Amino acid sequence: MAQLDRFCQSCGMPMDMDPQHGGTNMDGSKTAQYCSYCYQMGAFKDDFTEAREMVHFVREKLKDQNHGFLKRWFYTLHISRLERWKRSG
Fold first, then answer.
1. What are 35-64's pLDDT values in tens digits?
2. Among 10, 16, 69, 78, which residue's beta carbon has the most beta carbons within 10 A?
């Protein structure tokens, strides 16, 4: 797996934490770029158009998992620099 793809390029989750080991392309093959929570059958599972929407979503998920404010902030700090969001400006 390429260095870039150690993290989902949509949500930033470490790819080794994805129970499905990556999302799927349109043909059903695995992709190492996006996790299975974000990407299935060649499409994103959410309708987010901006990184800030993903940041909010991930922070809420982390809050539900009882992560404190600093961890939530730190874990989402890089989301806007991921490949999916570079295209959206």
1. 999 999 999 999 999 999 999 999 999 999
2. 10
